[in-house]
Amino acid sequence: MARVILEICVDSPEGLAAAIEGGADRIELCAALNLGGLTPSPGMIEKARKARIPVVAMVRPRAGDFVYGPDDLEVMEADIGAIRAAGLSGVVFGASRPDGRLDESSLARLVAVAGDLELTLHRCFDLVPDRAEAMEVAVRLGFARILTSGGATTATAGYHDIADMIALARGRIAIMPGSGITPSNAGSLLERLPVTDIHASCGARLGVAPRTVTLGFATGTEKQTEASRVRALKQAVTRNGAPKLRTS
């Protein structure tokens, strides 16, 4: 039976420990998951370096869009260099043109710095106007996988588009569903999609004091990964680890 890799995204030391305890196969290390994930701090990178499972780190210098200028790219190159020096397994990044197409020249520049690190193209892919064109760019640049919700708010809502992407990929690059995946819906998704990886946060809402939000120190949407949720998702993934594509 084929094994589906469970990737858990975390943005705190507690979340990192919970993901490992719950049985994650791989960690996506971030800061500020409530903003879609930003580049983690040097301290978090050092902490994750000691993990007993593979860790890939987000490289996203700021919130907002993925249209990066020269200064952004310099920061991203330096961050990739630090992640590589720390010995993590891979990096997660993307770059877009103003029209939503992948910025191939900027991506190529970052890929060159990454060297032999494993590459994940993040959900900037969900913004592209032409998926077939973007897929060829990702394959040409050597990305191992694409994280996607199929352009929808959740992977379950974007199921049909994810299935189309898998067909476009033709086995040349992994398509990893992410966004809104839970123990209750993972099984049906995996039964219909022949994927090798899935991505989730398994987070529970943190209680934040109202004044902390009022003063701008938090948004009130912060979550933290829970080991019990990771464990339940891992069980659901294990039960459905040999998916077959169904289009109806």
Q: Characteristics of this structure?
A:
single chain, 248 residues, alpha/beta, TIM Barrel, eight-stranded parallel beta sheet, two-stranded antiparallel sheet, globular
* Strand ordering within the main sheet: 7-6-5-4-3-2-1-8
* Largest sheet descriptor: 8 strands, parallel
Tell the overall outline: globular
Head-to-tail CA distance between termini: 23 Å
In short:
The protein has helices spanning 13-22, 42-49, 70-86, 104-114, 131-141, 159-169, 183-192, 210-214, 227-239, and strands spanning 5-10, 26-29, 55-58, 90-93, 118-121, 145-148, 174-177, 197-200, 203-205, 223-225.
Tell me what the structure shows.
The protein is of the alpha/beta class and 248 residues long. It has a single domain, classed as Alpha-Beta Barrel (TIM Barrel). It is 39% helix and 16% strand. It contains nine helices and ten strands. The protein has helices spanning 13-22, 42-49, 70-86, 104-114, 131-141, 159-169, 183-192, 210-214, 227-239, and strands at 5-10, 26-29, 55-58, 90-93, 118-121, 145-148, 174-177, 197-200, 203-205, 223-225. Strands 7-6-5-4-3-2-1-8 form an eight-stranded parallel beta sheet, covered by helices on one side. Strands 9-10 form a two-stranded antiparallel ribbon. Helix 1 runs parallel beside helix 9, helix 3 (70-86) runs parallel beside helix 4 (104-114) and helix 7 (183-192) runs parallel beside helix 9. The longest helix is centred in the first third of the chain and has 17 residues, at 70-86. The protein is globular, with a radius of gyration of 17 Å. Mean pLDDT is 93; it is low at 242-248.
